[in-house]
Design goal:
two-stranded antiparallel sheet
């Protein structure tokens, strides 16, 4: 349901990913060897680091958010958390599955 708060319990800066929304409408960043998909620089923009990895994993696998209607901005937070983990080189694209499906790669 639009406007419903789903993702409580995530401390800053991880909790800020709940406000990002649908990544498909976001401007792409320059493609680099470290960021071949042109994703936002979640690490710099939000100040995410190794200390945030447990909360990023928890957010990536949050069943409530992964089943939420995509009209809710918070429903997209697991995608952003997954991307942040990939950019930290803490996981590969295949290591975390979101909502029973492999998390999407690419610029979307």
């Amino acid at each position: 349901m639009e406007g419903e708060v789903l993702g409580g319990g995530y401390p800053p800066p991880v909790g800020e990913l709940l406000t990002r929304g649908d990544p498909r409408g976001m401007p792409a960043r320059p493609v680099t060897p470290e960021n071949p998909d042109g994703w936002p620089d979640y690490l710099q923009e939000f100040g995410l680091g190794p200390v945030d990895i447990p909360d990023l994993i928890r957010l990536t696998t949050d069943d409530v958010l992964n089943r939420a209607d995509t009209d809710n901005v918070e429903a997209w937070a697991p995608v952003h958390a997954w991307r942040a983990l990939v950019l930290q080189r803490r996981i590969t694209r295949q290591e975390v599955r979101i909502g029973g499906h492999a998390a999407c790669g690419g610029a979307a």
